[in-house]
Design goal:
Binding site for a ubiquinone: 122
GO molecular function: heme binding; metal ion binding; ubiquinone binding
CATH superfamily of the domain at 70-163: Fumarate reductase/succinate dehydrogenase, transmembrane subunit
Largest sheet: none
Shape: elongated
CATH class of the domain at 70-163: Mainly Alpha
Distance between the termini: 66 Å
Number of strands: 0
Membrane topology: Multi-pass membrane protein
Order of helices and strands: HHHHHHHH
Function: Membrane-anchoring subunit of succinate dehydrogenase (SDH) that is involved in complex II of the mitochondrial electron transport chain and is responsible for transferring electrons from succinate to ubiquinone (coenzyme Q).
Protein name: Succinate dehydrogenase [ubiquinone] cytochrome b small subunit
Strand content: under 5%
CATH architecture of the domain at 70-163: Up-down Bundle
Helix content: 55-70%
CATH topology of the domain at 70-163: 3 helical TM bundles of succinate and fumarate reductases
Number of helices: 8
């Protein structure tokens, strides 16, 4: 209870004791400079991690480099997710290069958007280059799957061969 009262008294607006604290150097050394604790530096850190609430303009929703609106992207994701429900059983019976490519594309896009969403939500703020690495891995991975479809037995036949072991 005492700690709650102390925290409340230390964090009251502009006259907050926490905002008025300055770090005092413990020794006098001319080669080491100490920067005092300021409210603006701590507020900038807090503001960096704070989630921003709407309303957002359409430009903010779309982002700087997005091709489509968020709502359109969401609809395409749902179309692909629902399409996979019928596509996967159909791939067992209808095999061929078109089915291989459609199945590869749908499964790849579904996984790409899922992992991309996790990276953008949780990791990109701390590791900014992870987005570029993920795009590079995704391009190489999709190129490998397309190469496998055209130059080997294809995804559907490969799954059937694995099941027959």
């Amino acid at each position: 209870m005492a700690s709650v009262m102390l925290l409340k008294s230390c964090s009251r607006g502009s006259r907050s004791l926490l905002l008025q604290m300055r770090s005092q150097p413990q020794w006098d050394c001319t080669s080491v400079t100490s920067k005092p604790f300021t409210a603006s530096s701590s507020l900038a850190v807090i503001e960096y991690f704070r989630a921003r609430r709407g309303p957002f303009s359409p430009e903010e929703k779309r982002g700087k480099s997005h091709i489509m609106d968020a709502s359109t992207h969401w609809k395409v994701e749902r179309f692909i997710a629902i399409g996979m429900v019928g596509l996967m059983p159909a791939a067992l019976f209808v095999q061929g290069p078109i089915m291989d490519h459609v199945l590869t594309t749908f499964i790849f896009l579904h996984g790409f958007w899922g992992i991309d969403g996790v990276l953008k939500d949780y990791l990109i703020k701390f590791v900014p280059w992870i987005g570029k690495l993920w795009y590079l891995l995704a391009i190489v991975g999709f190129a490998g799957l397309v190469n496998f479809n055209f130059n080997d037995v294809g995804v559907c036949k490969a799954i059937q061969m694995i099941w027959s072991l």
